[in-house]
Description:
InterPro entries: F-box_dom (IPR001810). The protein is α/β, with parallel strands linked by helices. It is built from 18 helices and 16 strands.
Amino acid sequence: MSLSTLPNELLSQILSHASPSGTRYNCLLVNRRFYSLMLPIIYRSLQIPFINHNRLVTFIRTVRRNAFLGSYTRSLCLGEDPLDNKRSVERIIGSNDINKFFPSLYKVELYAMTFERGMLYRFWAYCARATCLGEVVVYYPDLVPLMQPVKGLKKLTWGVTGCKDSSILMIPEGWEETKLIAKKWLKSLGSCAPGLESLVVGCVGREGTWGISDRIWLEVEETDRREEIETPRLENLREFEWREGEGISPVGVWWDIARKVMEVHKEQLERVRWETALNKDGDKPYDAASHGEMFWNGVKQMKRLKKLEMAVYPGSPVPGQSLGTDSETVWGARMTKHIVESEGFMLGVKDWDPQGLEEFKIRFSIIAAVPQLEKKILEELEKAKYLKTLEITYGIPSFFDPKASSEEEGGKTKFHCWYYDVEMMTTVINRLPTSLETLIIDFDGKHDIFDAYGQYEFGPLEDTMDRWDEDGSLRAQIKDIVNQRRAIPRKLLYDRMPNLKKVYIGGYDIVDVVVGMAGLSLEHE
Length: 525
């Protein structure tokens, strides 16, 4: 079958998998048929964050002169260029005819970290006029209550700031004002987005490290009004995510939002995703145990919870932040501290009864020398009689401080973990829930205390973050550990979990059982 005989529908499906980076645009130049099929694909999802003034004006002019182009668009991502003094995106969002440009728009994503608050009000007015809008993503350093009903809104993602130097957010008066605004924001969801099904709040990605709130007034005198504001119940809300992306923790005052949402919707939430950055927040120390208690107390009250995803990050400094002159010692101490804090956070899991839980995923950025956390989690998951999916993922192993071990190890850093220990791995596997259909235990070495912002396949880091491993020797040792291959007898898994359909254990191969083999045998290939 030649290419010319393929139906347009089939060829369009093939072209939709072309890379957006350049291949799609090259397809426009092949012939008229490719041009007519690729044009709707390109305009279906427009990603133009931080576009400069001239390119934005050209883009809008093109859509205005070719009205059929905007009708293809289902997803639009816009962002303000901080260096654009003409505020191009602000004017476009605030214009009255933007709905004429994109009449079929379902999702809009806005990078508004440099916007004034007034522009966010105009943005909500635009969302209220949109006829098909179902999902909104906003990156902004503060909360701005919805002002007009967006009746079709099903999912809202709000990325707040992780900046702890805000002159408003961190002073006592600003702290109280922020609590009031948070309550108003939650209240506005009930009146302006009553059909909301999914809510995501927190530091969603690295955008949480920048942006300045332009709040200049204080409302702390409104004590009575502040007490009267109650968190509304969103009848359709089924999914909630609290995000501290890449180990970036938002200002602690936002945690009340997470607590309130879980408390009010405990009878109806079916999926929760929770990312925790274990660090300190300004002058208010981050208490991992108390935060963990708040989280687990909320989870324990959810009777309809089916999916739970967690990530426990160490709370790394933002890119470019100095690590001090003795960075190796700093990292070693921080790693030990993180293991202790992770255990403190997980203390609250005790006496959890995951009745209807079907899926559980958790990521630890560091794997310790003993599987205490894993045993604690699996002990509770044994009560989940309907658990079908379990994923546990780790970053790098913990290591000995090179100075502390200089006499015994000749000053060479030594990594250690339980992951390849025969007895410990056997204990973990024997505690796995018997109802599992999918099991993934992955030791990837990517999201960890060192490279939270730059490692990705062990690539180079940026700025001072690379000072912990200037010659690359530690990273090389981590890579060697991650790339190890061992063997697990198939019998050990499938005898315990007869319904198992998909299994992947990083660093291990599942092999046939050798006659006479008992227990778990870890052998090199």
